[in-house]
Design the sequence.
């Protein structure tokens, strides 16, 4: 029987991450408990809160050639750099923080996929129900550059795994004019967003998924083939997309931030060979305003 080494590597990586979480949790939990008992939960200085909203555009589904625009509510609530609730990461905790390194876990929600997400391409493919995800993430943030990786387990719908590896950099525009980096970089200890002027972000990433996810979102079984007209297609584990992205951020005072982002993603591997996507090149983006206090 053939061995799927890509899937095995993904499972080994997730197992190691879980082992690291189990060893890190007691120490972090102890610090959190001590702070709570000292009244830290109600102390305003322990809280970082950002609220906002905007407009987000994205493909109707992964691989679609039609787009939709959605209102973009945004909130990011953090206590003591440990517990958080956000639209991006969900509900979770940073279980281990050491200098630039951070390891955490969260739960979030995914929308799944519906046949009605397309005019005809998904007809006969059935719905993939939405539900809760379990997430594990690792970050190494030096300030100007952040490396990150995450793994996501779906508890509904595909019930598979997916993940992302990426790098981002954040550059104040004043640095391009020769300003000293230390004087214009965001101050993480400042009240509000910490920016002293406009800035840009640049990033690149790669997305992978196991066989369960790939088959559910890009594969076609015999029943789906009969109902949709697509040929039977088996999608295997591996990398499914690569992407580049950029953003522009303009502070208005110490608390209000205006910005926009754009992202280009290209399907690869078994995803690009699948009959389900109608466009291998995907664009998404947003315009937003946030207020931090």
Sequence:
């Amino acid at each position: 029987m053939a061995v799927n080494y890509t899937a095995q590597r993904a499972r080994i990586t997730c197992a190691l991450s879980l082992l690291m979480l189990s060893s890190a949790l007691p120490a972090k939990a102890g610090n959190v408990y001590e702070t709570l008992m000292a009244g830290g939960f109600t102390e305003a200085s322990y809280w970082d809160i950002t609220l906002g909203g905007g407009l987000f555009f994205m493909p109707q589904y992964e691989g679609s050639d039609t787009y939709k625009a959605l209102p973009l509510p945004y909130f990011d609530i953090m206590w003591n750099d440990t517990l958080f609730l956000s639209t991006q990461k969900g509900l979770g905790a940073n279980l281990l923080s050491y200098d630039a390194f951070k390891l955490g876990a969260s739960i979030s929600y995914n929308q799944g996929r519906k046949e009605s997400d397309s005019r005809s391409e998904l007809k006969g493919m059935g719905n993939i129900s939405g539900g809760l995800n379990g997430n594990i993430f690792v970050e190494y943030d030096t300030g100007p550059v952040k490396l990150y990786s995450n793994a996501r387990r779906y508890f509904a719908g595909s019930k598979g795994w997916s993940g992302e590896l990426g790098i981002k950099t954040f550059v104040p525009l004043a640095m391009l004019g020769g300003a000293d980096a230390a004087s214009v970089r965001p101050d993480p200890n400042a009240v509000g967003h910490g920016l002293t002027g406009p800035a840009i972000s640049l990033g690149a990433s790669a997305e992978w998924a196991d066989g369960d996810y790939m088959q559910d979102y890009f594969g076609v079984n015999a029943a789906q083939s009969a109902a949709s007209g697509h040929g039977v297609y088996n999608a295997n584990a591996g990398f499914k997309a690569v992407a580049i992205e950029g953003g522009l951020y303009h502070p208005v005072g110490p608390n209000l931030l205006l910005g926009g982002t754009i992202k280009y993603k290209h399907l690869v591997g078994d995803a690009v060979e699948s009959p389900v996507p109608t466009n291998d090149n995907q664009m998404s983006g947003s315009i937003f305003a946030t207020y931090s206090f």
Remarks:
- Residues 124 and 229 are 8 Å apart (CA to CA).
- The radius of gyration is 21 Å.
- The chain has six helices and twelve strands.
